[in-house]
Batch of 2 targets.
Target 1
Amino acid sequence: MKILLRTLLIVPLALAAAQAVAADYTIKFSHVVTPHTPKGQAADLFAKLVDERTNGRVKVEVFPNSQLYNDNKVLEAMRLSGSKTTGIMAAPSLSKFVKFSKTLQTFDLPYLFNDVNDVHKLVDSPLMSRLTTGLDKKGLRALTVWDNGMKVFSIKADKPLKNVPADFNGMKFRIQSSNIAASMIKNLGGTPQKLPFKEVYTALGQGVVDGQENAWSNVYSKKFFEVQDYISVSNHSYLGYLVVVSDEFWSNLPTDIRNTVTAALQEATQANRKYAAAADSGDRQKIESDKYAKVVDMTTAERAAWRKATAPVWAEFRDEIGGELIDDVNKLLGR
Ligand code: SIN
């Protein structure tokens, strides 16, 4: 009897264990932010949905906080991974595709978007496939865009921020690997320095750079605001992510699995937009109610002065991105 009971207990456990390791495909989802940010939440939801909808045939393992790769390394790893059963997926910021796409630089143009609604207009339009064109030839399959939010500038300064471009004189700013961001900082009178995301807090704290640009959720979750004096609500550009996977892995997935994973990703994308909207206002409030950085809103006149100071960036990158594409984007956005 005892033996029978033990067998009855052991067999289901063994079956469950077998099921747990029975995934046919593994997706390693690597990102650089914390799990409770809009990207982290969306990645976790995606993993859960895929597990449920494929009955465990596809397992998504999420690696937050640059645990697996930083954003620059992950794209190389994705391109080089020849595996048909283990795919690397990531959602690097759109600014980090500069080595692989000239057209995606459009997203970095200062003051292209008034707000995230403008971004959705573009991302949900047929123009998006023109913006991501050619990535598959470089081994990257573009799947969807996830939001973080509009960017603000944070800065450590002895004197009060006036919210004018002159605030940037003699100041060094950490930027992502975007040439447009570099040009924008120079046009504002500052010095850009490209650094990986995981080095930003230390660089700000040790004075390697004076400031940085980012969305509220990153300023809050990575505690940048604790080592900065002012935050200028410039909303000068957008921080969003292109979700990408190794093209070889993706093309080799059976159609039913690919469709299920795509549907899960679409659902995660809709959820991400909600997470991002909540973080945008929630994390700003948390920063404002803390004792560290002072938040300075921007008047319409101040915004116009910044827009004017950064306008030469558009002319500088027009040919590289493609004038016709820029014109079509402007037309879509009603400019
Ligand atoms: C991220 O949100 O993934 C990182 C953005 C950055 O590098 O500033």
Target 2
Amino acid sequence: MTQEELFKKLVAHSKEYGFIFPSSEIYDGLSAVYDYGQMGVELKNNIKKYWWDSMVKLNDNIVGIDAAIFMHPRTWEASGHVGAFNDPLIDNKDSKKRYRADVLIEDWLAKQDEKIAKEVEKARKRFGESFDEAMFLETNPRVAETRKKRDQVHERMAKALNDNDFDEIKRIIEDCEIVCPISGTRNWTEVRQFNLMFETKIGSVADGANTIYLRPETAQGIFVNFLNVQKTGRMKIPFGIAQIGKAFRNEIVARQFIFRMREFEQMEMQFFIRPGDEMRWYEHWKAFRMSWHKALGFGENHYRFHDHDKLAHYANAATDIEYEFPFGFKEVEGVHSRTDFDLGNHQKFSGRKIQYFDPETGESYVPYVVETSIGVDRMVLQVLSASYTEEKLEKEDRVVMKFPPALAPVKAAVLPLVKKDGLPELAHEVFDALKFDHVCQYDEKDSIGKRYRRQDAIGTPFCITVDHQSREDRTVTVRHRDTMAQERVTIDELPRLIDEEVSFRKLFRQIVNR
Ligand code: ATP
């Protein structure tokens, strides 16, 4: 199965089992907007809990807030979004399709990397044990030429983006002979700037309504509350403020399912520090966040850091944590050193003093900020793609979502073997003993095999079967999702067993002991 086929299957599976639906589907949907179904919302809530607790509970110097989506319009002037929150767009005149010009070039770069990787693999097979990859990369003329061209284009793109030189971006697209994936032609328009913020009006028109924006990031809600939290929480630098909430961007190209949406959710943490300390904290948060991802057990090789070529207007260092999706390595999270750009500008634009008196140094200053910013929906996509597994069994195939148990939407399914002989009553008793602590399902319909398949498809870690023996000795069978192994345990033991396996404790321990 190709990665593309796998991705299509994942999208279909997500819909079929109530994870993700296209928004307002009965009206044919709304582009790049999605709804979470009954399974999706549980998964998403668990991801949010994993993030929130790892920030606010594991770090005694981080607190949370929940700021409004609407903010005073001056906020977005101060943050630079009114002036600079733009993407370069380009249209293909034949297909009438619109693209992000930088993404077209990035895709071309990724293709060159694939070409090189293929050559390396071929050579590895040819030379066997004695293969020296570094030497091959240096000396093979075809590879050396591809690498040289790739690096030149990469450098030109980074410079053009930094200089906002759109003519040069267009020239790169022409020089690389990039074609529109739909029409296959190179009939491109000029490259233009496009602001990604959604506008709306607040107040009635008669009163003279004001234009406001739907926030394109949650961070500014934290910056404008810096003094409120610092003072009321008696916070001492270094300290952080965490927040989870919706953000909105009028993305030019919205593709790849929930990877790029126009309404999405972010989990952001801004960490306030002394000026000059930023590189130390930048490295700290890079390591902390990477270990948060890796604790989920999706494989060390599926992650990498990707440092930014173009630093955003606010940053002096920035990297992405990328995950290898079925469509390649892509950004899931950003770690940015934002200097005093935001607080400094809010001080300027609001006329309020936004400073911290440091009792240790006896000085007042505008704190520096290192932030970690992750998209909830991209994280959902990461978990879905890492967990989706097709297995061939002796008599049939199964699709099983191998979610880390702490993230699984449903933790346990309680299944009476038959619908009579007092088994449903006992099964309800088991269900009631678990429901205060966990999302569980009770299911008595169809054969036990079919019921197992249904639970596999939504990734339930435990199926608990109540049979005739259960009535005699108050034991049940517990079937483990991944191994399908079954064990017999007493009903009294169940809550402890399940609690141990589905708790976040194991994940947190890995982060703390990294
Ligand atoms: P990209 O380069 O993919 O457009 P970005 O660098 O603009 O993303 P940030 O502004 O750093 O993204 O936002 C932080 C995080 O928010 C991203 O790492 C991503 O997980 C998430 N995010 C950003 N834009 C979207 C979107 N349109 N849909 C879903 N998640 C998003």
